[in-house]
Design brief:
The protein is built from twelve helices and three strands, in the order ααβββαααααααααα. By secondary structure, it is mostly helical. It starts with a helix and ends with a helix.
């Protein structure tokens, strides 16, 4: 059963990782084209799929009745939804209510919020490879459920799709407001030295690099790849060649420097 779960976890992890990576590239392209709010929502979904990919990589995930996984560990094998995780010495199966109790929740959460809550619990663990960005990656900065809901659903002024406000005036005012969101500069956000390439030292502000919201998405991708490498999993699903091809397809014509940096960064992460 343990080997079957490992395979199921890793396949789901790889599936979610490719979604997170592709949405990260989409986030950059959307910002470049000044689709600010759609970029924000896309960035959120990149993080959402990263969370699923990372939890599954650590052999922890939800399963349902449609999953052909043995349920010997469940008190009631007919439970329609359960959480399975590998402690290293045994596989634990928990019904939804049991899991909620274990992480201190009285009420059920939505399908997105429960993933974020489980991910939040990872911050208490100390079993990862030493990564400088891990604390940053395990935070909910920039992209989270509340911000996604505000941008995507709010009808309050400057909350939901703020670049489309002032449509009730004339074209000049509408487009003036729209242009408050400048297109993304073509800089390499994967490395601070490459980020400031061709920029005089006196004009280089490190805050521009560290405050770039794309850092959260890139560091998540980089963290996953480095943990994958550290685990020494023999696999052919996630490869530099495939990730390079996707970066080229999405960014080569719109953000060539960024594209080159991501390809270099991916290579460094998997080296």
């Amino acid at each position: 059963m343990s080997e079957q779960l490992k395979q199921r976890h890793f396949y789901r992890s790889a599936t979610s990782f490719y979604r997170a990576y592709d949405l990260f590239l989409a986030f950059l392209a959307l910002q470049r084209s000044q689709f600010g709010s759609w970029a924000e929502i896309t960035g959120y979904y990149s993080r959402f799929y990263f969370i699923q990919s990372f939890l599954n990589l650590l052999q922890a995930s939800w399963f349902g009745m449609e999953d052909s996984i043995p349920r010997e560990g469940l008190a009631n094998p007919n439970d329609r939804k359960f959480f399975a995780f590998n402690t290293g010495s045994q596989v634990i199966f928990l019904r939804e209510r049991e899991l909620l109790n274990a992480i201190g929740l009285r009420d059920r959460l939505g399908s997105h919020a429960i993933w974020w809550k489980l991910y939040e619990c990872l911050g208490a663990l100390e079993t990862y490879p030493q990564l400088e960005s891990l604390e940053f990656v395990l935070s909910n900065g920039y992209f989270n459920v509340e911000k996604r809901n505000e941008v995507n659903y709010s009808h309050e002024y400057i909350r939901g799709f703020p670049e489309l406000e002032w449509f009730d005036t004339d074209v000049r005012n509408m487009m003036g407001h729209f242009r408050f969101q400048s297109p993304r500069s073509d800089r390499d956000i994967t490395d601070i030295n490459r980020f400031f390439e061709d920029i005089p030292d006196e004009d280089a502000d490190e805050g521009d690099f560290y405050s770039d919201e794309a850092q959260m998405l890139w560091c998540s991708i980089d963290c996953y790849l480095r943990v994958l490498r550290a685990l020494q999993i023999q696999q052919s699903f996630i490869t530099q060649e495939k990730l390079e091809a996707l970066a080229e397809a999405h960014l080569r014509n719109v953000l060539p420097r960024m594209c080159s940096g991501i390809i270099t960064g991916v290579g460094e992460s998997l080296a």
